[in-house]
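Hi team,

Filling in the usual template for the complex we talked about on Friday. All components are listed, including any nucleic acid strands or ligand strings, so the model treats them as one assembly.

SUBMITTER: L.P.
PURPOSE: interface mapping
COMPONENTS: two
RESIDUES: 530
SEQUENCES:
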Amino acid sequence: MCTMPSRTEFELISRIRGRKPPNNSAVRLGIGDDCAILSTLPGNELTVTTDMLIEDVDFRKAWMAPAFLGWKSLAVSLSDIAAMGATPTACLLALALPPELTGRYFDQLIDGFLDACDFWAVPLAGGDISSSEKVCLTVTAFGTVPKGKALRRSGARPGDLVAVMGELGLSRRGLQILEEEQPAIAELASSEELEEWAQTPERARALRAHLLPRPLVAEAIWLGENGLAHSMIDVSDGLLADLQHILEESGVAAEIDADSLQPLQ
Amino acid sequence: MCTMPSRTEFELISRIRGRKPPNNSAVRLGIGDDCAILSTLPGNELTVTTDMLIEDVDFRKAWMAPAFLGWKSLAVSLSDIAAMGATPTACLLALALPPELTGRYFDQLIDGFLDACDFWAVPLAGGDISSSEKVCLTVTAFGTVPKGKALRRSGARPGDLVAVMGELGLSRRGLQILEEEQPAIAELASSEELEEWAQTPERARALRAHLLPRPLVAEAIWLGENGLAHSMIDVSDGLLADLQHILEESGVAAEIDADSLQPLQ
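RESULT (copied from the run log):
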């Protein structure tokens, strides 16, 4: 069902298969059949999440280097896996892009995606490639967690402490910088160029949070394994909006000490 | 990460959650958390596939009623699950559409999708909703199969019979009718209207194959359970192209008796 004049779907898939995936025993059969096959360890359950990133809605090609887009598309899904206290095991990528971007742009996007796969040891087990006017990625990510141990939104209890990992608003600050200063994509095509263009460490941190996020996957798993959290959520809409989801699902209320929230430097 | 002026993301999710999903013990946690949680029966493996349908690439809004689009988007993914000899257990839907389609169009699309979920007893366990200029759906479907029993493309052996279920080219014939006659969407918005507009049973069959496909899920599972097939594939690019995938992966050759292929009536 694919229209792809420049490079064919099969050429693009070969490009992906040319890179050795990280090893993960959860993947019994990877790219190349009608389905991938995953196994779950006895006593474990599978967590799964799917997220779309769409050009001009979730990102602008003008600011977002394809390698960063590939990286970020996996990172945001792994953040959902980690928010359940689960360990990421595999992912799928459904990618649609205009025929004129199936060359260098595709290669850089896929390399960014596979760099993230390597970084978190999450093999790309399958997917779909299609054409479209605007770039669109749907990433489905899988995780594993001991039965009954996933940290649900409904798990919060009276007496729990509300705690945040990472810096609230940092990614938003990065987006603001990009919107205000509109850098040329060529100035921001690699991690090194990002540092240089940012000029100050604070600005670089904000830009990285937006363009090359590193969800705190190991930290979230550690919290779950050590029974240190009853409930977790991936903060994407802001502290109050996302805390509200936990409160509603758990049937509890929360008190936030506004002074404890430090504004970004 | 959602921009949705007309109905909010949360209103759309409520609309989906308003319909009771079919029961399936594989889904431990459905819509409403950072991830869905799935369990696999002991001794079983999970099969998973993801497919995109994109407006003006895979379908035209002018011919494809939203209810048919919803139905078809699940059907094509279940066809991949069935091609492994696996039993479908759950699905995820990532849906992007223009803000002006979040009313009636969204409702009909979701109802078509959930009708297919009911028909195949496959609960919608989660997903993502976003906005876009063109309608875009990514469906991820899950299945379960006894360990080592999935029918892979690599399983064909010398002496195997090449057999086809369904009628080759029927969906393509349906597409041709639509392209040539360009019916108004209002004439083709329900199964009954399709029958009426088609005029003859042959034309209705072709239109249904394209707009409201029913992959032979039970038949494929039966073939697998009874050890009657060594290898299977979902035919979407045509007999020769898709057979070629089996031959390459299995390291075998095939002989096709052209006279055995009956042209469509």
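MY TAKE: The helical segments of chain A are 9-17, 66-82, 104-119, 170-181, 191-198, 201-211, 217-225, 239-250. Chain A is about 35% helix and 20% strand.

Thanks, L.
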